[in-house]
Amino acid sequence: MTIGASTTALYYSCMKRIRTNEGYVSRNFFNAFKSNFRQSTLIWLGLAALGLILFFDMHIAIEAKGIIGQFMVVSCSVLIIPFVLVALYIFPVQAKFENRIRDNLKNALLMSLQNFHLSLLIILIIGTFVCLTLFFRPFIGLILVCGVGLAAYLTSGIFVFIFRKYIPKELDEARRSVDAG
């Protein structure tokens, strides 16, 4: 039930840690969890419902025979691609920007398409974690110890880079801190 809020809080904490090197990870997590709970939970429930519908549609399409089945597979695939892109970006976008759900969904899709090469890198990172977990049993121990936090931390650096394009003030602050250091 709280996957959306906790994922948003995880990305908020990771991105803040990467940007500011601040050490208050737990406090940042719980503050972000509390402030994003309602919107993130609604987003998660919507994504879960839509994901189930797409999953069952694809299953039915694969089982269907003939030209109808092929058409259904193609049409489901056309819907799955933007769904995956939005699912990758929505919780980091929710963590970073204060907008209505509809606006954050739209921004997540647009950012994922405008930075498609980085979206593919994020898919590669998360896909690697999933594949290693499924097919390489010793990796399960690392997942149990580090959880999905490691994957989120690795992808958070990419999201910080992407979001700086949309927040010029933050980019200027980052440049000043590099120049001062």
Note down, in words, how this protein is organized.
88% of the residues lie in helices and 0% in strands. The protein is mainly alpha-helical. The longest helix is centred in the N-terminal third of the chain and has 39 residues, at 25-63. The radius of gyration is 18 Å and the shape is globular.
Low-confidence stretches: none
Shape: globular
Q: Radius of gyration in whole Å, from Cα?
A: 18 Å
Distance between the amino and carboxyl termini: 43 Å
What proportion of the residues is helical, as a percent range?
over 70%
Structural class: mainly alpha
Strand content: under 5%
Order of helices and strands: HHHHHHHH
Largest sheet: none
Give a count of the beta strands, DSSP E runs of length 2 or more: 0
Number of helices: 8
What is the averaged pLDDT score?
89
Which SSEs are present, and which pair or pack?
Elements: H1 3-20, H2 25-63, H3 66-96, H4 101-114, H5 116-135, H6 138-146, H7 149-164, H8 168-180
Summary tags:
181 residues, mainly alpha, 0% strand, globular
Concise structural overview:
The chain is mostly helical. The protein contains eight helices and no strands.
